[in-house]
Amino acid sequence: MTHAGETPRPEPDQSTIRPPSVSGRLHHLPAVHRLLASPCLAPWLQSLGRVRVRMACTTVLDQIREEAAGPVPDLDIICARVVNHLRQTTEPHLRRVINATGVVLHTGLGRAPLAQAAVSAVQHTATHYTNLELDLDNGQRGHRSDLVAAHLRAITGAEAALVVNNNAAAVLLVLAAVAVGREVVISRGELVEIGGSFRIPEVLAQSGAHLREVGTTNRTYARDYAAALGPETALLLKVHQSNFRILGFTTAPEIAELTALGHAHGIPVAFDMGSGALVPGLPGTEQAPHHNVRSALEAGADVVTFSGDKLLGGPQAGILCGRAAYIDACAHHPLQRALRVDKMTLAALEATLDLYRSGNLEAIPTLRMLLRSERELAACAEELRQRIAHRLGPHCATSVIAGDSVAGGGSLPEYPLPTAVVAVRPMTCGVDTLAARLRRGAIPVVARIGNDALLLDPRTLLPGDELALPELLATAMEQASDHG
User: Fold this and answer.
1) In this structure, are residues 270 and 263 in contact, taking their beta carbons and an 8 Å threshold?
2) What does pTM read for this prediction?
3) pLDDT value of residue 72
4) Which letter does DSSP use for residue 442 in this model?
């Protein structure tokens, strides 16, 4: 009640008033200094320092204050929450993952793992000054792509080579340097979209070139290209159908047909291979010569673009090989600087290409995985099955069954790779729950699911993965069982 002459008191903000039960509850929260004195936080104080651990304690205590009424957790539980918070906030977001999917070039898992020689080259380059853009012979400024150009010329037979940060960038650069303001002729069946919404028509528009579509979705002939030629034609472009295939009533001209047509009219031909093989003999490439870079150049392609981290088995990069006049035009285009690669990428690429030139292909993980025989994979699968059965006992049923791996990354989509997989059928939890727990493990494991079983493909396991898998499976099954 307010008397005459008194100033009315404002009503308290109800949102800031804690019920007596909550206020009383918070009196039992330990002080920050008590948490910091807990033995379980001692290793974290030593490794991270007092300031960071104190901040974590404060964060967890604030979270508890905001939670619904109930008993305050005891000191050990609060400390465990602090430790969990520290783990979540200090672990690198980019982590080692075991790839048991059988997808060799798994885009979600970073595509090609590097050869040890490439890893060593990256480490050496990252910790020292280098001659990235310095010609040590004359002391003048050099071009960074020259560091790998000789390797690429020797392996592919190209007159010249250039490296940018990925294959999409390579295609964009070719179009901008060779066809800006003019027409690029391409089959309707090759106006593709690949991962990340990379669409050929949109890249053409962004480059400043104009799209001229020919043929139909499933059938395009060399005569369709010929009918489209005119004074505004700057380039004939062939694009590999990366992530899909069209079956049945189909026709598409080979690269040799296009180059014969283009050269007869003085028009260059570019081939976006997406994933280019540098050696013969990879599964599927015998039936698909358009995957081999040297073959495409020998067939007359003026520029071939392909990825460094697909069938090549190196770091992410976009590689341009071909006639010197067109590669030089790309190298001197203003866009090239925005698309260039760093010293560590070049170091990894050079080391990988050196393995090609020395014939040491077994040292390149991607090639080793692609070339593994069914017999070898069956033996590896059985050995892994026995390890898992020994560790998990009656908690799961295991068997080795036939299956198919894939190259992945848009490479060789029409060619499955026969393999043998370990099928794990858990007895104490659902297979989906087990797969989810594996992904959240100390070392995350990514696998396939099929026929109510977890499928582990040895093709994509790296050395040591087969030793870690049984224990990771056991931990995941215990956690899955504990949570129903």
Assistant:
1) no
2) 0.84
3) 80
4) S
